[in-house]
Amino acid sequence: MSKLSNIGHALYAGEVSIDFVGRKWLWYAISGVIVVVAVAGLLVRGFNLGIEFQGGVEYQVSMPSGQANQANVTKIRDAVAKEAASAGIDAAASPIVNTSAGNIRVQTEPLNNTEVNEIRSAIARAVPAKDISSDAIGATWGAQVANRALLGLIVFVVLVVFFIWAYFREWKMSVGAIVALAHDLVITVGVYALSGFEVTPATVTGILTILGFSLYDTVVVFDKVRENTKHLARTHQTYAEAANLAVNQTLVRSINTSVVALLPVGALLYVGVVSLGSGALKDLALALFVGMAAGAYSSIFIATPLAVQLKELEPGVRAGDARTLRHRQRREADRYAAVPSYSEDLPLHEPPAGVDGVGREAMAAGPVDEQAEDWQPQETGIGASRSRVPRSTAGERPASRAVSPSAAAKRAQPSRKPRSQRGKR
User: What is the three-class DSSP state of 98?
Assistant: First the structure.
């Protein structure tokens, strides 16, 4: 744990940095490949719409304890398909049969009353069921759910744009957040299409939920970006460098939040797929799991680099970055320009070897009496030797030439008067 905490501290302090903003084209390429695969799955396989969206008949087969297993599921599927073939019921030729909360659920396309009774009788002959109930579901209710979900999505997107614009006073961050939300939605629906999971009202609920999670993580990163770029001229950093530091500072927090959220959702997904086999829990858990993972990725790799890229198009930001780079070049050209001024707590460092021709071994040869003598090197062919040159004070130093009398010595020199006589002639 101490190593992880040290890494987090180093990321926050800028001692260790991952170039998220500078390598934006790599992240864009990775996201583009994922989105293309998701869209291809959506176009090729399409959604496996549940009975709530396309209508049909649903049978709930109550089984004795421990009898809702895969063997009885296979028996019911074969019995319903055989009955549909013999009776000419095309709507029940390919039934969807799975376990659901200790029962077995059978779904077919819309049937009339006579066909419903025939399929019920076939199920009763196939397995020792305690009770068999049937419900006819029309497609109208599913269409209403889809329309309400689409309306809720549009309202949510509009509110997100205005909220981020009002909070950050920056429409470019709104664009980055909306692109990240679209990225998460496309990946989630693509995974649903590729996995063949049934799309139910619980799926719609999960998709709407992940929008809030993705936005939450993005706002946290944007808030740190705004804090780092508020006084950008004082930090001598470009806008991209300050934003990249913000992403590194929130990286550990984003990872911890995502892992803590994904662990229970992953457990729900496992229980829904393995133990229950079907139901709203599985559909909700898959949408949440994929959406949360995509939201954590997009807030770091998509939203922030895109917002920085749009921000760098502003003339003021470009001028500030150019000024920072010029200052950095001048400082690198004159290495002594960054030497700190003396202070009482200034740390002392040992002079490096070779400074002024004096080697480190020569410096360690013995103490030097600074009051009496000074060490100065004299080149002799190979290496450098030292000779003692006496140090004299200013009063003892001999004049370089004789001092001639000045012409001003013959003029009357001003004298300092007492304070009581100043200003009087």
Answer: strand
Please tell me the number of Cα atoms within 13 Å of 351 on its side-chain side: 12
User: What is the distance between the alpha carbons of residues 226 and 218, in angstroms, rounded to a whole number?
Assistant: 12
Q: Which residues pair with 135 in a beta bridge?
A: 58
Rounded Cα–Cα distance for residues 170 and 152 (Å): 24
For the chain, list residues with pLDDT below 50.
1, 353-389, 394
Domains of the chain (ranges; CATH) run: 13-49+141-323 (1.20.1640.10), 56-137 (3.30.70.3400)
Q: Which residues, including other chains, have CB under 8 Å from residue 291's CB and lie 6 or more apart?
A: 184, 188, 206, 207, 209, 210, 211, 213, 214
Give the integer Cα–Cα distance in Å for 123 and 116: 11
Q: What is the distance between the alpha carbons of residues 294 and 189, in angstroms, rounded to a whole number? A: 12
Q: Are 78 and 126 in contact (CB under 8 A)?
A: yes
d(CA 10, CA 420): 69
Q: What is the pLDDT of residue 370?
A: 42
For residue 276, which of 106, 134, 105, 130 has the smallest C-alpha distance? 105
